[in-house]
Amino acid sequence: MSEPPFAGAARQANLGDACVAVVGLGLMGGSLAGALKMRRACRRVVGVARRRSTLDEAQRRGWIDAGATNLAAGVADADLVILATPPRVIIAQLDELGPAAPAGCVVMDLGSVKSAIVQAMERLPAGVYPLGGHPMCGKEQAGLEAADPLLFEGRRFVLTPLERTPASTLALGRALALAIGAQPLVLDAETHDRMVAWVSHLPHLAALALVRAVMVGARRDPQVWSLAASGFRDTSRLAASDLTMLLDIFIANREPVLATLQTFQSELTRLGAALEREDEPALRQLLDEAITQRREVCG
Amino acid sequence: MSEPPFAGAARQANLGDACVAVVGLGLMGGSLAGALKMRRACRRVVGVARRRSTLDEAQRRGWIDAGATNLAAGVADADLVILATPPRVIIAQLDELGPAAPAGCVVMDLGSVKSAIVQAMERLPAGVYPLGGHPMCGKEQAGLEAADPLLFEGRRFVLTPLERTPASTLALGRALALAIGAQPLVLDAETHDRMVAWVSHLPHLAALALVRAVMVGARRDPQVWSLAASGFRDTSRLAASDLTMLLDIFIANREPVLATLQTFQSELTRLGAALEREDEPALRQLLDEAITQRREVCG
Fold it and tell me: Which residues in chain A (50-89) have CB-CB distances under 8 A to chain B?
């Protein structure tokens, strides 16, 4: 471990000169490593993965300069450590990072829930600078094979600073987001979690429940799947997500997710009640409001 | 009106020699007319639309040979009439068609609900041959501008014969489906309606309720829409559908739709309950089953 330039300051405030350790080379971490290298955004990228074969493949693609299967070894020279594993693994790794992170290093993550992770970041030793992060992009496929250095292009990259996060660390986070083509947006962790529960976690739950509901229908009409067209495919797409990630997200963001689920159920009940009583004017208004809002948001 | 070749037989059992009247030149009717002309599947296509400008545009594209703004005039020489208007308009037009359809002509429709339409078809006079139809494809955009002669390519085309439908009429329906690149599938109307409630109407309801739920979230966090990414966009895509069509579908297929809604809500409740009590093994199993099923169906 090298010493920071002076006590209480980050090792490296300039992304261009930084050694970045990306921990986890799946969809998000692989894409990030690739984006950093492709855009020559930093001095050096070190990948950390459980399997040697993942590191080999990332190196073959030119997405990392070096690799390690051991967290402490991988972050030993890092100015910036970015945890790109599933939320609960991030939390476990933060505790491991405490003694392992070089003094003065910045620790970020890419997890899709923030409060639980930011709480775990509070436990990092002084002299390590934490910052929560969440790029608003993804796809169902997991793993390095699905990674894409252009994944972040034009997407929001939420940054959730802690009280202890220095301004220079937040600036480094912004620089990182911009360097990979994303738009930084600073939010507190709680607000982030409430907001992603609405636009990300609830859609996942809806997609999963939709598939489960049609499974019930298929008991009587096994041919039902043969009629599934693009409408079903799109509405259920998020049900093809990675199981570990889904479980982590729902459990780590349990209360906000349950709140959105309750509202979703109320809106379903309201639509069903208008249809049940054949109240066409009411149903028309409920549908019209949703159609108008969807057009406004998604064009 | 010309006489059929002999009493009780269709005017024209061969699609290639048929004059086809397509009533309604929106997304479905326009696409069908275009597909028939592009593939030279029939002798002649006559379009029926409310507005002269729609007929002009369809003619300019080469999708119809002639047009009429009056239903009776448009179907006067038809061997096959295909109603491609919203479900409740189809039902009204069937009653209008009774006295107007030439003896021996086949009457089909492309409506996305079948029981209510097939019931209205029962009222057609003897010597007119009805057959319900529903191509399983679509998009949110409505109107001739969104029409596409390749819309039916590789999609299921459900045919719902009535008891009175002669075998030759069903054969003509199959020929039509194959001629536009679709795969015919014969079902009774009730089974069709139950099945599309699961894979089409319920996804529409889920998408609409999802948008409405996030509207509630946006009251507290107006920035919530700015975090909506591809997951929200896809899950809510069906909420961008045409209002008239949605209302017609939900109301015409009310009971099956309400039944699917009830099951959907039960599955949401079950997911929510497992999350609420932090029962990770139960939650894992519920998610895993849905993920596995979705992969099996959609790849």
Answer: none
